[in-house]
Amino acid sequence: MAILNRTLERAAPRIRPALRVPPVLPVALVIIVALGLLRIIQSSEATTTNYSIQDLEQQRLEARTVNSELEAEIARLSALDRIQNEAERRGLVPALEQDVVPVNVPPPALDLPGSAGPAGENDESASEGADSGWLDEALDLLPFR
Amino acid sequence: MARRTRLNWRLGLIIVALSVCSAGVVVRLVQVQIISHDYYSARAAEEHLHRTLERAPRGAILDRNGFPLAATVEAYDVYVDPRSWQSDATAFRGASVLAPLLKVDAEQLISSARSQEEGDYLAARAVNGRVGLEIMEQAPPGVKAVNSSGRIYPEGDLASSLLGFLGRDQEGLAGLEADYDRELGGVPAEVYFERDGLGNPIAFGRRIGGDPVPGGDIQLTVDRYLQRLVERELQEQISAHGCTGGEIIIMDPSTGEILAMASRPTFQLSKLNLADASQAELYRNRAVTDTYPPGSVMKPITAAAAVDAGLVQATSSYFDDGAAEIEGGEVIRNWDLSARGTMTVADVLKYSLNTGAVWLAQTLGPERFYDYVKGFGFGEAANVGLGGEPAGIVRTNEDDGWYPIDLATNSFGQGINASPVQVITAFSALVNGGLLMRPYMVQETNGPDGHRVYEPVEVRRVISEETARQMVEMLSGVVDGNPGHLAQVPGLTIGGKTGTTTFPGRSDTIASFIGFTPVEQPRFVMLVKLDAPKDNELGGVVAAPVFAKLAPQVLAYLQSAPGALVEGPPPE
């Protein structure tokens, strides 16, 4: 009986203690997954930004090209040949004659607008003018004038 | 028990295999990572890092008012990958898009691209921006448009010899483009950057190298309107007189600024062909690089020297018997073989008497004469700021092979060589109060070295103000005091001097005239030089009328005060 009991004891399954997972492992797992996800997101963001930058570079190139074309157009439109052609198209012609006006002679006597002033003053200036007229004529006779 | 043994054998085999593989991997890793580290590191860098030379945008060449004479625009070089076009379908698809844009035949384009053995085929160089953008938008297969730049000349062929041109690598080869290449071209940058599988830069990747320093604009003293005016007139006169070439220069005598400079023969920017060796002769700017004997234009210099030395005055006289005897027995005669009797210094210039010039030079003596000649800048480069400037040839009494006849011939501009720029610079000193100004044609640069403004430089005083005043008076007498002189213009006061250069044993001459206006306060000096005129050899007949034709237009343009129309103080 004792032998039987010993056999039965041996046959009975030994109860093992439950597997104990250290609490750090799930945390580490979560961190690893999170880091992986972060890396993927970062990489994705970098790729997206890369495309955005390339797109902006392309836009900048296009804008620069258009700007350059416009500057060239301004230069072409400002060219002397084009201006001359445009003037001729509008019927303008170069001046054919050039008159020389000598300006080292006394100006002609001006008929000042006497009617603008009061009548009395006008009469006075007129009489002064008459006086200076004969005086000037007399002075003109002098050889040194 | 047997089963357990068999399992162990299999397991052992796997373990051994894995161990061998792992060992192989480890050995290979050691070889790659440690033993051959440098080699593979370099290979990796070569694969990932792309080297490129980023060219700096080239600056513009502007006239004195800021109008561009040469400018840079965005352009595109169009390449075709011949491997992509080996397939007929791809090639036709690509060519059908590209050919109309480049205005070439599609089949010819395919044939040319396929014949390229190595690298990409350059289908077109520097196509304009619109076409480049269109190509990028339509993206035909196997085609890429690479950003580059092109040079445009809004005024066409104006000032070709002055501006010069660029090579295919966008570096200046001639003219201002070459002389101011550093200022215009900027500094390119060598850049290394990480690239992806398609060759595009990786954002946030490694980038080694700085940014290119853009080229700056240069602003000339040359006025495009005056330049166009003189170039057209020069071409017309060369055709009319059957000349082989010529120059016209306009200078502000008070500052030394060159307002216009035309030179013929020259090349046309619109028809530039660097492969044509025969065009090489046309590339130089003859107004700066070539020398000639100035002829009678030299007589005012001789007269100014004698007056400034206090040896003669405008009214001092000598007896012109038509021949001047030189030590050694040679005889110098007047150009028209005349003998005019008693003549003053003013008459020497008025009638352009060789005998009078010889008299003045002999009165000065060789030492003083050559001191003055060198003082006026003959025999030294004018330092106008352009390449290829010669010093000219002045043989003095201190040089070997000099004879007294040289003093005599030099006095009226024979046997002495100077560039047109030197001649106009020296003449300007006669009418600006006696100061030799350094000629210049670039007034402002914005290069990598910063912003520079060039201001008038007074080289030296060569004659006194009083002498200069007397010279202006005498030169005025040459034109305005000489009835029928072909340089006269009604309503303008003009001074100047004709020149006719002769060559021993040759029938051709150089006809020239140098003049200024208004006499009261010279606004500009203009040199007209025509080489080998066929119909008449005299400067007074061929070149003087050109001055008379241009002077009123130039003066009107410069909006000069019409002092020439007023004699004496204005009426009160």
Description:
The complex is a heterodimer of chains A (145) and B (572). With 145 residues, chain A is mainly alpha-helical. Chain A has helices at residues 2-11, 24-78, 80-89, 119-140. Chain A is rod-shaped and about 175 Å long. Chain B is 36% helix and 21% strand. With 572 residues, chain B is an alpha+beta fold. The interface between A and B is medium-sized, with 30 and 37 residues.
Summary?
By secondary structure, chain A is mainly α. Chain A has helices at residues 2-11, 24-78, 80-89, 119-140.
Q: How does the SSE layout of this entry go?
A:
The complex is a heterodimer of chains A (145) and B (572).
Chain A: H1 2-11, H2 24-78, H3 80-89, H4 119-140
Chain B: H1 2-35, H2 37-48, E1 49-54, E2 61-62, E3 68-80, H3 88-102, H4 106-115, E4 121-128, H5 129-138, E5 143-152, H6 160-163, H7 175-179, H8 181-185, E6 189-194, E7 207-208, E8 218-220, H9 224-241, E9 245-251, E10 258-264, H10 286-289, H11 299-308, E11 317-320, E12 323-325, E13 331-333, E14 341-344, H12 345-350, H13 354-364, H14 366-375, H15 404-411, H16 420-431, E15 435-437, E16 442-447, E17 450-453, E18 458-461, H17 465-479, E19 495-502, E20 509-517, E21 524-531, H18 539-542, H19 544-557
Parallel strand pairs in B: 2-8
Antiparallel strand pairs in B: 1-6, 2-3, 3-4, 3-5, 6-7, 8-16, 9-10, 9-21, 11-14, 12-13, 15-18, 16-17, 19-20, 20-21
Helix pairs in contact in B: 3-4, 3-5, 9-19, 11-13, 11-14, 11-17, 13-15
Give a quick set of tags describing it:
heterodimer; A: 145 residues; mainly alpha; 4 helices; 0% strand; rod-shaped; B: 572 residues; 7-stranded mixed β-sheet; 5-stranded antiparallel β-sheet; elongated; disordered C terminus
How is the main sheet of chain A built?
none
Q: Which spans of chain A have pLDDT < 50 for at least 5 consecutive residues?
A: 114-131
Q: Helix content range of the residues of chain B, please? A: 25-40%
Terminal Cα separation of chain A, in Å?
Answer: 174 Å
DSSP helical segment count of chain B = 19
**Beta-sheet strand percentage of chain B?**
15-25%
Shape annotation of chain B: elongated
- Contiguous uncertain segments of 5+ residues of chain B: 560-572
Annotation, overall tally of beta strands of chain A = 0
Backbone CA Rg of chain B: 35 Å
Largest interface: A-B, 30 and 37 residues
The total count of strands of chain B amounts to 21
Mean pLDDT of chain B: 90
User: Which sheet architecture does the biggest sheet of chain B show?
Assistant: 7 strands, mixed
Overall mean pLDDT of chain A? 74
Strand content of chain A: under 5%
Task: Provide a count of the helices of chain A.
Answer: 4
Helix content of chain A: 55-70%
